[in-house]
């Protein structure tokens, strides 16, 4: 049987060898951040976005201050706007949505009327672009159907 001091030295050497063998396997996993996605940026307060359907979108704090857009309406074009829509953070980017009634104006000069307006959208991870759907229902236009839209930050 080996003396106690020699047994302790062997035990220490064995533990050190195991620690060295395990250390490289655990360091890269922690350093690589496996599965981590890029962080989501909030749209900058005061930024403005322009898009198709003559859509304009203004950001104020953590809400959409104003969104206004054109939509097809039988023989003419309608325009409506909504304001103060809260933003909600998600894994893919900030999103918003609202179902409300608003005033609708028409390009042909016919009288303004109230109508049901639904709009939703989501900003990209870097908050440079935004895309979504809108739908407008009014007495003279009927249902516009779900219309896709997209916009990018004004430079």
Strand content: over 45%
Average pLDDT, rounded to a whole number, is 87
How many DSSP helices? 1
Q: Work out the number of β strands.
A: 9
Distance between the termini: 81 Å
How are the strands of the largest sheet arranged?
A: 1-2-3-4-5-6-7-9
Major sheet description: 8 strands, antiparallel, barrel
Uncertain residue ranges? 26-32
Secondary structure: helix percent: 10-25%
Dominant shape: rod-shaped
What pattern of helices and strands is seen along the backbone?
HEEEEEEEEE
Structural class: alpha+beta
Radius of gyration: 29 Å
Walk me through this protein's architecture.
The model is unreliable at 26-32 (pLDDT under 50). The chain is α+β, with helices and mostly antiparallel strands. 18% of the residues are buried. 19% of the residues lie in helices and 48% in strands. It is rod-shaped, with a radius of gyration of 29 Å. The chain has 1 helix and 9 strands, in the order αβββββββββ. It has one helix spanning 4-32; strands at residues 48-51, 55-60, 63-73, 76-86, 95-106, 113-123, 129-138, 142-143, 147-153. The chain has an 8-stranded antiparallel β-barrel with strand order 1-2-3-4-5-6-7-9.
């Amino acid at each position: 049987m080996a003396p106690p001091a020699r047994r302790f030295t062997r035990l220490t050497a064995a533990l050190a060898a195991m620690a060295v063998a395990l250390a490289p396997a655990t360091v890269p996993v922690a350093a690589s951040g496996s599965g981590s996605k890029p962080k989501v940026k909030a749209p900058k307060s005061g930024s403005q976005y322009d898009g198709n359907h003559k859509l304009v979108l203004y950001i104020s704090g953590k809400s959409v201050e104003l969104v206004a857009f054109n939509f097809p309406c039988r023989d003419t074009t309608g325009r409506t706007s909504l304001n103060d829509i809260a933003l909600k953070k998600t894994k893919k980017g900030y999103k918003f949505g609202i179902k409300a009634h608003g005033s609708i104006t028409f390009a042909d000069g016919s009288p303004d009327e109230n109508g049901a307006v639904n709009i939703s959208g989501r900003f990209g991870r870097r908050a440079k672009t935004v895309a979504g759907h809108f739908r407008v229902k009014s007495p003279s236009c009927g249902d516009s159907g779900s219309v896709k839209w997209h916009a990018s930050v004004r430079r």
